[in-house]
Design a protein that fits this description.
Length: about 260
């Protein structure tokens, strides 16, 4: 397919792969915490460098690879000492290009530097929330945050959701936008492919019995019979805010629209 033409035809790096035991949506207690998960094709996790352990050393892009655990593509970097690492690949980067992570660098895709040294209007990705903890924000395919302002030790970022939030200027971020923007147009096409991705069938509440779901029971296509939709445990559903207060909420300037 055209969207995968960027990828290099090579086997993934053996030293940068590891195996995760499948839990099928279950927590350590064994209870299902994420429903409709299970099965799926076998896959190995790629160890990705989200931080900046090699500061001031240039790395060469030697390959672009698919990652079964994320929507973005990965780039394989090779350092002068021969060490190789995976990082999230940005758009507009080519094999043979060199990138660097340091306090202040050239404004070009893939370079990583502190937010205070990046000009207003630049697009960034893989942004840290706490300095030195590695990138936590803007890692999905095709995403990017826009730098709006620098003020009082903080950088104002416009997130992909149009939420505006403050992040410490000492945090690192990478220049550019994440690769594989065509992901949002992808059509799964058939149920079998969805099963290979580890998704199991979803049963409607109205198709269940009254003992299994608040919407269950009745003859034929019966309405739910309640003022508002409910979850299987009787809590309000659809349109109810479920976001809990987090320590990062005080840094939100404007909520997403």
């Amino acid at each position: 397919m055209k969207k995968y033409s960027l990828l290099t035809k090579k086997e993934p790096e053996k030293k940068l792969r590891t195996f995760f035991k499948k839990r099928a949506g279950r927590a350590r207690s064994g209870r299902i915490t994420v429903w409709h998960r299970g099965g799926g094709a076998k896959r190995l996790y790629r160890i990705v460098d989200f931080g900046q352990e090699k500061i001031g050393i240039k790395a060469k892009v030697v390959a672009f690879e698919y990652d079964p655990f994320r929507t973005a593509f990965l780039m394989l970097l090779e350092y002068p000492d021969g060490e190789r690492r995976y990082q999230i690949a940005p758009q507009e980067l080519k094999i043979g290009d060199e990138i660097i992570c340091q306090e202040k660098a050239e404004i070009k895709p893939g370079n990583r530097m502190r937010l205070k040294n990046i000009p207003v209007g630049t697009m960034v990705y893989n942004v840290e929330l706490e300095s030195g903890k590695g990138g936590k924000l803007i890692r999905g395919a095709g995403t990017g945050a826009k730098i709006l302002a620098h003020e009082a030790g903080f950088t104002h970022l416009e997130m992909p959701s149009k939420e505006i939030r403050k992040v410490s200027q000492e945090c690192f971020s990478s220049i550019g936008q994440v690769s594989h923007p065509e992901k949002k147009f992808e059509k799964i096409g058939k149920a079998g492919r969805r099963r290979l991705k580890g998704w199991r069938p979803t049963v409607r509440g109205t198709a269940m019995n009254p003992c299994d779901h608040p919407h269950g029971g009745g003859e034929g296509k019966t309405p739910i019979g309640l003022k508002h939709p409910k979850t299987p445990w009787g809590k309000p559903a659809f349109g109810v805010k479920t976001r809990k207060r987090k320590w990062t909420e005080r840094y939100i300037i404007q909520r997403r629209k």
